[in-house]
Write a structure and sequence with these properties.
Structural class of chain A: alpha+beta
Largest sheet of chain B: 5 strands, antiparallel
Strand content of chain B: 35-45%
Helix content of chain B: 25-40%
Number of domains of chain A: 1
Distance between the termini of chain A: 34 Å
Number of helices of chain A: 3
Number of domains of chain B: 1
Order of helices and strands of chain B: EHEEEHEEEHEEH
Strand content of chain A: 15-25%
Number of strands of chain A: 5
Distance between the termini of chain B: 26 Å
CATH superfamily of chain B: Molybdopterin biosynthesis MoaE subunit
Helix content of chain A: 25-40%
Largest interface: A-B, 19 and 28 residues
Number of strands of chain B: 9
CATH class of chain B: Alpha Beta
Radius of gyration of chain A: 12 Å
CATH architecture of chain A: Roll
Shape of chain B: globular
Number of helices of chain B: 4
Oligomer: heterodimer
Largest sheet of chain A: 5 strands, mixed
Chain lengths: ~80, ~150
């Protein structure tokens, strides 16, 4: 399984902070994103942002990165700390 | 030293700690505060969310990058999370080095990277009591890009 996390306005819009997906069906970030977008129009629209950031196992990554079972993938909007 | 905490910090204590290391000839510090106005809105409070498992790791990585570019003796990054009020301290970056050049550059570098790479998100409450997530600024991305040219 892969643990998927959402933060800030992304979590608020989706109404979900965490979910699990099957690693066989989600070999990389882009496929995972496509599968999540396929849930419904709201997910499709919310995850469509080009500025969406992704971290794998707590390190900033990108959409082409591969995934394996046990990974933690986080999606979030551009960060605004400091 | 890296800390992510809800409590306030004392600048004097942090500065004193940084200047104690041997060979230190320069200490540069930066402190970020909660502004009372942002993008034309009167602000009454600020909430900072973060990704707890990743935050300290991201800050440690930024400090490591700074250490590989400049000769640094010691570095402190403190970032607060949770509910903050107007003029509260949000972030502290302190850098100690032999000479001022390295400390000035590294302090700015750490802040520019923190602004665009560390997983913190601000939610503002305005004077009417409405809360909304703060949008990332284009200028923060441009500030980061200048370090790629060096």
């Amino acid at each position: 399984m892969i643990k998927v996390l959402f933060f800030a306005q992304l979590r608020d819009k989706l109404g979900v902070s965490e979910l699990s997906v099957n690693s066989d069906e989600n070999p990389n970030v882009q496929v995972l994103l496509n599968n999540l977008k396929a849930k419904d129009n709201h997910w499709e629209k919310t995850l469509a942002s080009a500025s969406l950031m992704v971290a794998i196992n707590q390190t900033i990554s990108n959409k082409t990165a591969t995934l394996s079972s046990g990974d933690e993938v986080a999606f979030f909007p551009p960060v605004t700390g400091g | 030293m890296i800390k992510v905490q809800s409590e306030n910090f004392n600048q004097q204590i942090e500065y004193d700690r940084l200047r104690q290391a041997s060979h230190t000839g320069a200490v540069v510090t930066f402190t970020g505060l909660v502004r009372d106005i942002n993008q034309g809105e009167q602000i009454s409070a600020l909430t900072l969310e973060h990704y707890p498992a990743m935050t300290e790791k991201a800050l440690a990585d930024i400090v490591k990058q700074a250490q590989s570019r400049w000769s640094l003796i010691d570095t402190t990054v403190i970032h607060r999370v949770g509910e903050l009020q107007l003029l509260d301290q949000i972030v502290f970056v302190g850098v100690a080095s032999l000479h001022r050049g390295d400390a000035f550059a590294a302090c700015e570098f750490i802040m520019d990277y923190l602004k665009t790479q560390a997983p913190f998100w601000k939610k503002e409450t305005n004077s009417q009591g409405e809360s909304y997530w703060v949008d990332a600024r284009e200028s923060d991305q441009s500030a980061l890009n200048k370090w790629h040219k060096v």
